[in-house]
Specification:
This protein is of the alpha/beta class. The chain has seven helices and 17 strands. The strands form four sheets. The chain has an eight-stranded mixed sheet with strand order 1-16-17-15-12-9-10-11, sandwiched between helices. A five-stranded mixed sheet has the order 2-3-4-5-6, with no helix packed on it. Helix 4 links the parallel strand 10 and strand 11. Helix 5 runs parallel beside helix 6. The longest helix has 13 residues. The mean pLDDT is 93.
Length: 305
Amino acid sequence: MNTSPHVNLLESKRWNDYELLDSGNSLKLERFGPYRFVRPEAQAIWKPGLTSSAWSDVHATFVSTGEESGGHWKVHKPMDDHWEMKYSLERPVHDLRFKVMTTPGRHLGVFPETAAHWDWMAGLIHSAGRPIKVLNLFGYTGLATLAAAAAGASVTHVDASKKSIGWARENQSLSGLDDRPIRWIVDDAMKFVQREGRRGVRYDGIILDPPKFGRGPKGEVWEVLKSLPELLESCRFVLSDAPLFIALTVYAVRASAIHLSYALQDVMKGQKGNFDSGELVMREKSAGRLLSHAVYSRWESSLSR
């Protein structure tokens, strides 16, 4: 029987190298390391808290064309082609170091709001007292993978982009984790999970961070609301007999955390554990408002604490 989920606001509070400085007028003002940027943020329908001079003192602005991730960067002040940022995991204590740069799709190689997930899963793995195998689907530049590996897990990282995998491997070296057991796989997430199920491969933890729309390396089409139910069903068959956690994060779709929670409850039916669902948020430095970036649902074993 499905239970009505309680919706939480999950805030990543432990950043030093990133700040959400302000937001408003459908934009957000951010600091990534030493540089300040303005990026589109459709949900920021209020007025900015800082003055126009603060908003003009930036290194680059992403000018959107209105299409999905379409647009270009307008550079205002000199900056490096790429630079390094750091996030310090809470438990176990380990510094994740990673490369950051502007990309054609408005992103910079890190989604700061997901850091709360990194600390959560690293803490679970660190406390498990047994070998943990983790599957990270749509792994992008690998920061969740590196958090899990730093905590002692062996990780299989899957992404359709060879470029993202290369970036993730650079981050592995920057983080001092070259000796950790990480498999880097360029593949379509759906096909990979289904093959793993047929091969009898099992995982104790699964991380899913699917895009709204994407294509696999052989042109496979991904549309999140159409494709996600089949992927979640496939994930059921690669869970171990004693799963530790599963985390699902979804961006830019008309779905609520409640809907994700019900879908995840189907996957974890019969398993003893606790669900946590809600929105990933960051708090402005200017006016203290919370800006929602994504909806999430996650489950952890009741035996993990």
